[in-house]
Amino acid sequence: MKVKSKKINGFDSKLEYEEYLKFKLMAGKGLISDLKKLEKGKDSFILAPAFKVSSTATKSKISAIQAITYTPDFFFIASGVEDIKQGRRVYVEVKSKATSKIRDYSLRKRLFLAFCVRNYFAFVEVVDNKITIFNGGLNG
């Protein structure tokens, strides 16, 4: 399932742009700091590394498997956000209801949540203006 959205002001969708403006207001109030729009490639996380495997599918008998990467939409440091520990690194993903159900996103989200838990990061998912906060680590 492929969902096309219209880019606006350098953002992938109107929804993403509107959420960024909300986070910018939070930064202005001192609730968050270091707000940054993340760029694919430059700010991507490698969730599973690339590798080569023996295969009968190619003449060389070797198939290259691409890395699985994920780039959240935004990043910030929590300063006074309810339900997120002060100083915690927070990654944000903005999706429409339709794009949140795409299988590829669901898998990448699960792998990234495992990464967040190991590194004590928080992950904020915004789906059609509904915010869900996932806190990494055992103590929130």
Describe the structure.
This protein is α+β, with helices and mostly antiparallel strands and 140 residues long. The chain has one domain (14-135): Trna Endonuclease, Chain: A, domain 1, CATH 3.40.1350. 26% of the residues lie in helices and 32% in strands. The protein has three helices and nine strands. The protein has helices spanning 14-28, 97-100, 103-119, and strands at 32-37, 45-48, 51-54, 62-65, 68-70, 74-78, 89-95, 122-127, 130-135. The chain has a five-stranded mixed β-sheet, sandwiched between helices. Strands 2-5 form a two-stranded antiparallel sheet. The longest helix is centred in the C-terminal third of the chain and has 17 residues, at 103-119. The chain is globular and about 60 Å long. The two termini are 34 Å apart. The mean pLDDT is 89.
